Amino acid sequence: MILLVPEHAAGTLRGSARELVTAGRTLQAALGGEIHALLLGPGAAAAAAEIAKYGVQAHHSEDAGYEPFKAQVWTHAAAEAATMLGAKAVLVPASRSGLSYAPRVAVRLNAALLEDVIEVDSDGATVGGKRFTYLSRVTESSRTTALPVVISLKVNVLAPAEAAAAPGAVAAIDLPAAASGVEVLSQAKASTGGVSLDEASVVVTGGRGVGSPEGFTRLVEPLAATVNAAVGATRAVVDAGWRPYADQVGQTGKTVAPNVYIAVGLSGAVQHLSGMNRSKTIVAINKDKDAPIFKVADYGVVGDVNEVVPELVKLLKG
Prior knowledge:
Elements: E1 2-4, E2 8-9, E3 12-13, H1 16-31, E4 35-40, H2 44-51, E5 57-61, H3 71-85, E6 89-93, H4 96-109, E7 112-117, E8 119-122, E9 127-133, E10 138-143, E11 149-153, E12 170-172, E13 202-206, H5 213-226, E14 230-233, H6 235-239, E15 260-264, H7 270-273, E16 281-286, H8 293-296, E17 299-302, H9 305-317
Parallel strand pairs: 1-4, 1-6, 4-5, 5-12, 6-11, 7-11, 13-14, 13-15, 15-16, 16-17
Antiparallel strand pairs: 2-3, 8-9, 9-10
C-alpha cells in the first residue's frame, strides 16, 4: 500500500497532489496494494473528495490543530496513518513543509528516506529515486535496501495524474492533532498578485536588469497581469529588498515548471536556471546578447527591457 500526504489550501488541492498520484501509480505497479491519501486540517474533507477522483482511497481529519503547520504535529499524523494502514511507501511533496517533516517520519517508521526526487521506480522489493544535484548539473540515483520508504517529491517536475475511471472512497479518520512544543505566534501571508507562483502556468520573472523596485511595478507586473502570470524574482533582486523571498525562483528559492517562463532583465546564473530550466517554453529579454539565459531560451529578444516590455504589453493587449 502507498500513502500520499497531499497539501491543500482551505480544501483546494495544491497542484503537487496530482504529481503525488502519478508517483504513487508508478510504485503501485510494482508494490501492489491500493493508493491511500491522508488530508489534514480545516477543509480536508473537501480536498479528500477531490483527490478521490483519481482512484485514491482518501482519509481526512479536519482537526484545527493541524493548522498552522507544525512539523512535529504532521510527523505524528503521517507516521500513525502509515502504521495503521501498513504503508510500504509514504509520499509527500518536497515543499518547505514536506522537506521539514519527511525525515522525521522516516525516523518514526525506521524507514529509508529519498529526498527531493524527480523520478521513482520499484522492483517490488526496493524503491529507487533520482534527484538533481550540483546545481541541477548532475542527476543522482539512489535505491533503498528495504521497505518502508519515505519519499519527498520535487514539486512541478512530474506530469500531473489524470482522473481515474472509478473514484476512490472518502472517509474520516480518527487522528486528532498531537500536542506540540511549538507555538506559532503570528503569520504573514505574502502577496502573490493573484496568481500563485507554485501553480502558475505562466511566470514572468524580473532580474537586476529592471533597474529598481519601481521597474517591477512599471514593467514586470503589467506584463504578468496581461498574460495572467505569476511574478518571480532572482535571488539578487530579493537580496536587494526589491521583492519578497516568496517570489524567489532558483536553487535557494522555488522550483517552477510553467508552460511559459518569461525572463526579464536577468542574466541566467546557474543557481537561477536550476529553478526554472524545466519550463516548457522560455522567453528571454536582455540587452546583453551574451547573457547565459539565451543558451536555454526558446525565444530571445536582445534589447533594453524599458523599451521592449512596454511594446510587448501593447502587442499582447491588442
